[in-house]
Amino acid sequence: MKPALLLVDLQGDFLATPGLQPPAGALVDRTARLLDCCRDRRIPILHIWTTIHRDHDQRLPHWRQADRWMCVAGTPGHQPPARLRPLDGEVLVHKAGFNAFASGELDAALRRLGCDTVILAGLHLHACVRTTTVECLERGYQVLVAEDAVASNDPIHAAATRRWLTERCVGFATTATILGSPNGGAPPTWTHRSPRRTHEVLFEVPITAARGIATATAAAQNAGIGWRRTSRSARLRLLEEVAHRLDAAAPDLARQMAIEIGKPLAHGREELRRGADNVRDAARRAGSQAPQRRQAAGLVRDRPLGVVAVIPAWNNPVAIPLGKIAPALAYGNTVVWKPAPAATRVAEVLLRLLHESGVPADAVCLVTGDHTTAQRLAADEHVDAVTFTGSLLAGYAMQEICARRLVPLQAELSGNNASIVWDDADLVQAAAQVAWGAFAFAGQRCTANRRVIVSRSRFEACLQELKQASDRLAWGDPLEEATEIGPVISLAKRAEVAAMISRAQSGGHADRVVFLQDARAEQPWTQAGAYAQPTIVCCDQPDQPVVQEETMAPLLVVQRAEDFQHALALSNGVRHGLIASLFSPSPDRQRQFLEEARAGVLKLNESTAGVDTSLPFGGWKASGIGPPEHGEGDRLFYTRLQAVYGAAEVGIEEHPAAE
């Protein structure tokens, strides 16, 4: 193969587009790494720019309609960032519309270079990147898209585009994969390295092919016939046995999580307790709710969905999947489970535990792989519903798949959670709670405190208390009992967070950056593993990426508020809406907070981190789709209502034996 790199529309005006996913800063960083690697390997680089001239108007019709002038030759917005500009000898192709091949220059350049493969990065995926990709296919080129170095301001359209192109033999791979092998496609396995000692490979995860997924979903569908006919009391007894065995397995599983995902032992044990509680609560609720209710005109019945695809995140590899699997089974569904790659070995242990507890083998099937496996599973014809926990971008892909198939989706899409610490709060107690919520488990919880909002008058005092409270948290090896802050999941995550902090500093958006635990940060072990230094960033500009983006890392953003109404606006002023909290003893402020805070979970005088399994857990806005998890949310998602007329006449029992 002889590849070439095509960079599409990475120009200032396009990068300033509101709502880009991923954000412009991350897109530029990833593309710059890809560009530098390709230059080092002497892979030809072709830059594609939209170029508009005011004296010869070739704008697209929708630009004319909106009287929009972008990428005008000679303006700053016409140029890419300095890191992405062409070097001498690199090809620059200009276009006025979607099609980079319209002038013939690009085709001629690729033929002259003798290329047979193109790697694409840039924006927008749903528009110019798509058009360029299709034109490359028509000319016989193999196409590989750097999936984390393409962006769009229309994420559902982008998700549909990705699926459509994949079905037409276009490869999508991360920049890391491409950097590892720019000539090839996706590897057959996914490699997981130790977060504690990143030079160690812990295991390889096989990528389940489409045939393997179809086999698993068909087996689960067949198993569903017998599982639905199993009495409800028998199903619930099995779940009680699962919880009992999980309690017994807790010490070994906590240690396994510390080794494989870097979760401190104390946090692992807490997760296992919560996972067992979740299983018991799901069984208790399913047992206490009548599956059929007689009404004047007939019966109303709760019916299982069928085969549920369970696709959880890596950070809670026990509690999240069991919090989905237990209610699915309790209400008569069967499951095909695709764990996050880093959680694969933990998932295999849990699968054995489920089967040893008496759950039929095909009632819960496991398939392994990466995000492509998850998407293939959600799209499988035998899957009747999808429950998913992951990132916002992955959530858009799931939403597009499920909408196209008209199947229910429950999605928890992370959080950018704020705590308001107001003037009348106990500052020492609030700072201790927020620091623990922000930095424990290296901030790798969807419930973690990402932001803290304080009045301008108490800013310095609050910042000082946060620093002291954070420095008291033990940062170190997750296998040590005292550790609260372990490593992040990978070196790539550490680099991503460092880049975000650097952009906030260099762009002048952060008026202060406080690196915590400096003495420990200098020790060799922090470089041997994926240890990200806990950091506080002070940023009052609400539109900046460091404020707007959910980081899943030990990074806390502190913002000043002019008054309480401004504090509420800052808390609500991100697209996520998972959890918000208020530290204040004032009943009036508490009432106002409960009335105006826009999140699925609200807390008073507590960190945002941590939830009880008996209450519904789900986000508003971009943090969730569909019914919440847990508590009352379980029956809402894992069953569907059915009305039966004339039940008495045909002898249908109100409480059938199977239930």
Textual characterization of the structure:
With 659 residues, the chain is an alpha/beta fold. The protein folds into three domains: 3-186, Isochorismatase-like (Rossmann fold, 3-Layer(aba) Sandwich), CATH 3.40.50; 205-413 and 623-645, Aldehyde Dehydrogenase, Chain A, domain 1 (3-Layer(aba) Sandwich), CATH 3.40.605.10; 417-604, Aldehyde Dehydrogenase, Chain A, domain 2 (3-Layer(aba) Sandwich). Helices cover 41% and strands 20% of the residues. The chain has 24 helices and 26 strands. Strands 18-19-20-17-16-22-23 form a seven-stranded mixed beta sheet, sandwiched between helices. The protein has a six-stranded parallel beta sheet with strand order 3-2-1-4-5-6. Strands 13-12-11-14-15-25 form a six-stranded mixed beta sheet, sandwiched between helices. Helix 22 links the parallel strand 22 (579-583) and strand 23 (601-604). Helix 13 (371-379) packs parallel to helix 14 (392-405). The longest helix has 30 residues, at 232-261. The protein is globular. It starts with a strand and ends in a 9-residue tail after the last helix.
- The number of distinct helices, counting runs of at least 4 residues, comes to 24
CATH class of the largest domain, named Alpha Beta
Task: Output the radius of gyration.
Answer: 26 Å
Q: Portion of residues in helices?
A: 40-55%
Number of strands: 26
Distance between the termini: 60 Å
Strand content: 15-25%
Instruction: Show unreliable segments.
Output: 653-659
CATH superfamily grouping of the largest domain: Aldehyde Dehydrogenase, Chain A, domain 1
The average pLDDT value, as a whole number, equals: 94
Lateral strand order in the biggest sheet: 18-19-20-17-16-22-23
Q: What fold name stands as the CATH topology of the largest domain?
A: Aldehyde Dehydrogenase, Chain A, domain 1
Q: What overall geometry do the principal axes of the alpha carbons give?
A: globular
Main structural class: alpha/beta
Number of domains: 3
> Biggest β-sheet, characterized?
7 strands, mixed
**From the 3D coordinates, which CATH architecture of the largest domain would you assign?**
3-Layer(aba) Sandwich
